[in-house]
Amino acid sequence: MNDDQLLRYSRHILLDELGVEGQQRLLASHALVIGAGGLGSPVALYLGTAGVGTITVVDHDIVDLTNLQRQIAHNMSRVGQPKAASVAQSIAAINPEVKVVAIQERADAARLDALVAPADVVIDCSDNFKTRHAVNAACVKHRKPLVSGATVGFDAQISVYDTRSDDGPCYACIFPPDAAFEEVRCATMGVFAPLVGVVGSMQAVEALKFLTGVGSSLAGRLQMLDARTMEWNEIRLGRQAGCAVCGGRPSHK
After folding, report:
1. How far is CA 27 from CA 55, 99, 235, in A?
2. In a domain, 59, yes or no
3. What percent of the chain has pLDDT over 70?
4. Which stretches does DSSP call E strand in 112-236?
5. Nearest-CA neighbor of 9 among 212, 215, 213?
6. What is the reported pLDDT for 241?
7. Domain that holds residue 71
8. Quick check: is 109 in a domain?
């Protein structure tokens, strides 16, 4: 690291658990962020400020006035612009040395297969089950850790799905693709603005912990928050033998 980097990342370097080596790992890392909205905004910004070397941001949408209530990476001057490009501009304004790859498209299974393969960690900030399952399938295939978050109304959930361990569940273990889950979106139900910041920041924490090897992850644990009472509940999760996506697959240690 050069002198400017030592100064910029000094508060990370001061952490015994992270230090210079941990920061260097971040600088050499590649994170894939799916979605540049309410969750993707704090995720991408914190990964950028932390110095993750390459951040790929994927989102097909453009910035709309209704987004600005909670999607903090965007502003009035970017209404009508692609969200992925807007996030890239926001990261560059804080940390121009980070390489941001902005992709404006709704990634299908084939595209996700190509995007997930080179990433060190995948952060799912999407807002629908179809995308979440497609991202999960690609992560299982390429044995990449997946940090997943979701919010609607005053309710939120977050977990890490890491199938490199024999008992680690994938997203489909908990939310089977063929189950009849009701698709609930912010456009119809609303969302409490700071809640996406809370969950997105936690997703960034989990991603950065993985990239630096600090602590233990939320793998095998689903945390749920009711922001009305600020009460957290946690469910322990295990791999489901009958899972159509990861069931019975060995971890290849």
Report:
1. 11, 10, 34
2. yes
3. 94
4. 121-124, 146-152, 155-161, 221-226, 231-236
5. 212
6. 87
7. 3-163+183-218
8. yes
**Tokens encoding 223:** 């945390």
Q: Is 170 a catalytic residue?
A: no
Question: What is the total count of domains within the chain?
Answer: 1
Is 124 contained in some domain? yes
Q: Considering all CA atoms of the chain, what is the largest pairwise distance in Å, rounded to the nearest integer?
A: 55
Residue 253 belongs to a domain: no
Q: Per residue in 91-136, pLDDT tens?
A: 999 999 999 999 999 989 999 999 999 999 999 999 999 999 999 9
Helix crossing, 40-50 with 83-94: angle to 10°? 30
> Which of 139, 186, 243, 246 is labelled catalytic?
186
Does the pLDDT at position 86 exceed 90?
yes
Which CATH number do you get for residue 83? 3.40.50.720
The pLDDT tens digits for 211-221 are: 999 999 999 99
Whole-Å CA distances, 191 to 156, 164, 198: 10, 34, 12
Q: Is-above-0.85 flag for pTM?
A: yes
CA atoms within 13 A on the CB side of 39: 28
